[in-house]
Amino acid sequence: MKIRNAAVIGAGVMGAAIAAQLANAGIPVLLLDIVLPDKPSADKPDRNFLAKAGIERALKARPAAFMDPDRAKLITVGNLEDDLKKLKDADWILEAIIEKLDAKKDLWEKVERVAKKTAIISSNSSGIPMHLQIEGRSEDFQRRFVGAHFFNPPRYLHLLEVIPTEKTDPQVLADFSRFATETLGKGVVVANDVPGFVANRIGVYGIVRAMKHMEEYGLTPAEVDQLTGPALGRASSATFRTADLSGLDIIAQVAKDLGRATPDDEDFTLTDTFRRIVEEKKFLGDKSGSGFYKKTKGADGKTKILNLNLQTLEYEDAGKVKVAAVEAVKARPLAERVKALYTAEGKEGDFLRAVMNDGFWYAAKMAGNVSNRLQDIDNALKWGFGWEQGPFETMDSLGVQTVIANLEKEGRTLPPLLQAMKDSGRERFYQGEETVTPAGEATKYEAPYFILTDLKKDASKVVKKRPGASVVDLGDGVLLVEWHAKMNALGEDQLRAVQDAHKLVQDMGYAGLVVGNQGENFSAGANLPLVLAQAQAEEWDELEDQIKQFQQVTTSLRFSPHPTVAAPFGMTLGGGCEFSIHADRIVASAETYMGLVEVGVGLIPGGGGTKEMLLRFTDQLHPGQQVGAALLPAVQRAFELIGTAKVSTSALEARKLGFLRDHDAVVMNRGLVLEEAKRTVLALAPDYVQPTPRQDIPVMGDAAIAALKSALYGMREGGYITEYDLVVSEQLGRVLSGGTGNNRTAKVSEGHLLDLEREAFLTLLGKKGTQQRIDHMLKTGKPLRN
C-alpha cells in the first residue's frame, strides 16, 4: 500500500498540526471540518471557515508547525457537507474530531460510503478504544482501520502510537507503520487497544501519584519539578509544568476515565487538592493562564513565574527554587544522578523513591497489557514525554534486583514480569542484543533504528577511538566519524578523528566516509573556551596553525579520493555547518538548525564557510552574470547570510538559505539519517572521481568592498548595527570581495579565499571587542552587542 496523499477530518489544534506535518513530509492533504454558516465573509458565508482557520493557526503556531511556510500550499481546505466525496482520492484518512464515540461512529459511516477500498482509515483518539469506533462497519473497513495517536505538537514530539484492533490486517499495520516511520518521521510504538494506550496510561498514572506523594511529604510543585525534571533525565517541564501545558482539566478527566476503566489497584484517584484546583478554582493550566504556575508581569515589566501554594491555593513569588539533593548531583552523568537521587535521604529522597517505585511497579504491571514489548513502553515515555531513559532502562541503571528488593520492602506484590526477573536473578532487562518478554523470557532486542551510542553498541565496530571522537565501522565498507564531546564542540580530537578515518578508508579499502553522530546535536561549533584562552595568552602562531589545520580537515571532505557524506541534525552551527557544506553530499534530518553564526562572537567563519557560500552563490548566477557589477547580488547574499548569523529553522529552510543543495537529501526521521547517509556513500563510491580545488572563482575586489562599506555605514548611522558589528562586517566583506586590489574581472582560487578567511579570523580574534563577545557568550549564552 502506498500513501501518496491523505485527508484529515477535523481542523482543530491537533488536526491542523497533523496536516502540517503531512505537508512537511511532502504529502498533499485534504483538510475538512464542519460548516459554520454563522461565520460570514464579506458577501457570503465561508463554508470552509474552520479548515482555513486551522491552517492559519498552524502557520502562526510557535514553535512553528510548518518546517517551511510554503508547505501550507500542499493543504487543500474543504468541509464535510460539500467535499466529503473528495475523500475517494485519499490513500489515508485520519479523523481528529471531538472525543465522543457517537460522533466518531457517525463519521465512519459517512466515510465508508465514499472512501476507496484500498484507503487506510485511522483515528487520532487519545482514549476512545478503536474497536468501539468500528462497530457496525464492514469487514473490509475494519481490516483497513488502525489507530494513529499523535502527540502535541506533532512536528516535535516523536511518538506515534499505532493501535491495531483484532480485525486490523497485519499487512495494513506493517505498511502504515513503515509509512509513519520513514515518510512522516515518527517513532512508532505499537499499542494494544486498551484504555489510555501506552504513554498516557503510564504518564497520567505518574502525575496522579506524584501529586499524592507531594502532599504526603510536604513538598511544593516547584520542588517536585526540580526532582523529576532534567536531574532524572526527563524534560525540563518535569511533572507539574507538563500538567499545566496539557491542561489540568484534561488530566483530571483522563484520570477519572482511566479510574473507571482499570482495576482498583492501579489507583487513578485524584487528591482533594487537585480536584479543588480544577473544579473550584478553575485553574486549568496554560489555557486559563494559571495552574500550578502563573505568569505575571513584575514592577520592572519583566515576566515573573508565580507558584501555587497548595495550602492556601493562592499564588506567591517563591524566587528561584533549588533542591539540595538536585544541586548536589546535577553535574554528574545521568546514571550516577539517578542512583544518587534514588538513594537520597530526607523527604526529597523519600518522595523520589515513592514516585519512582510507583512508576517501576506500574510499568512492569503494564508489560503485556498496554504493549507486548518492553522497548515500546520505554520508547513511548522517551518519545512522548522527552525522557532520556524509559522505566525499564532506568531500572537497569539501578539494578533490577535492587528495585525488586525495595518494592518488596514496601509490601508490594510483584507483577509477573518482576517476579520472573527475581526468580531468574537477572540484573538487566536489556543486555547486548537481548531483552525479555513481558513474561520475563529472553528474546532478541529489536532496535528501532541504527543505534550507536547506547548500551547496545557493539564495541567491536569501533575501529579507532579518541576521548572526544571515534571511528566506527558501519558495515558494507563504510566508516563513520562519530563525535561525542559536550555539545560536540570541535577541537583536536574531532579533527584528528576525521584524519584517522580518511587514512583508514585508503589503507583498508573502505568505500567511503560518513560524518555524523547520535548526540543531542550534530555540533554547536568551535571549542570557544580554548580559543579565548589561547587568544588571551597571545599564542598566535599556534592559533594560526590550528585554523589552517581546521581548514584542511573541513575541505578534506570535498577533496578526498573517496566519497564523504555529512549527516547533520539539530544544532549544526559554525564549524559543524562548515564540515557539512564541504561534504560531497549532505543527508540532513528534517529538524536541522544550520547556520554560520560566528559574527555573534565577533568572528567570521574560519573553516572555509565564507569561501564556500561565496562559491555556491556565484555558481548559481548565469555565466554572463559572473563578472563585474553583476556579481554583487551573490556577494550580498553571502554577506547577509553570514553577517546576520542566519540559522535555518529546519532542513527545508536550510535548502532555501543555500546550505543544502538540490542533490542533498532531507530525512524526516532523525533515527534513519545514518542509514540513508551510508546508502548514499555506497551509491557514490563505484564511479567516484576525486574533485580538485577550484581556481576560477570570480570576485569583485575593491568595487564590492566599496559597495558593502557604503551599505554598512548607512546601517550604522541608522542604528541597525553597533560599532563593533561594523568592524566584524568589514572583515567579512573583505573576504567575500576576494581582497583588496583585485579588479572587477578577477578570478581567484579557493586557497586564496581560505588565506583571506584565516587572516580575518586571526585579526578579529586579536581585538578586545571579539574577546569581550566570546567571554560574554560563554558566561551568559547570549551575544554581546558592543
UniProtKB/TrEMBL annotation:
Span of domain 3-hydroxyacyl-CoA dehydrogenase NAD binding: 6-193
Catalytic reaction annotation: a (3S)-3-hydroxyacyl-CoA + NAD(+) = a 3-oxoacyl-CoA + NADH + H(+)
Record domain 3-hydroxyacyl-CoA dehydrogenase C-terminal: where: 196-294
Organism: Deinococcus reticulitermitis
GO MF annotation, one: NAD+ binding
Entry keyword set: NAD, Oxidoreductase
PANTHER family: 3-HYDROXYACYL-COA DEHYDROGENASE FAMILY PROTEIN (PTHR48075), 3-HYDROXYACYL-COA DEHYDROGENASE-RELATED (PTHR48075:SF7)
Gene Ontology biological process terms, A to Z: fatty acid beta-oxidation
Protein name: 3-hydroxyacyl-CoA dehydrogenase
Pfam family name, one: ECH_2
Domain Enoyl-CoA hydratase/isomerase: 484-610
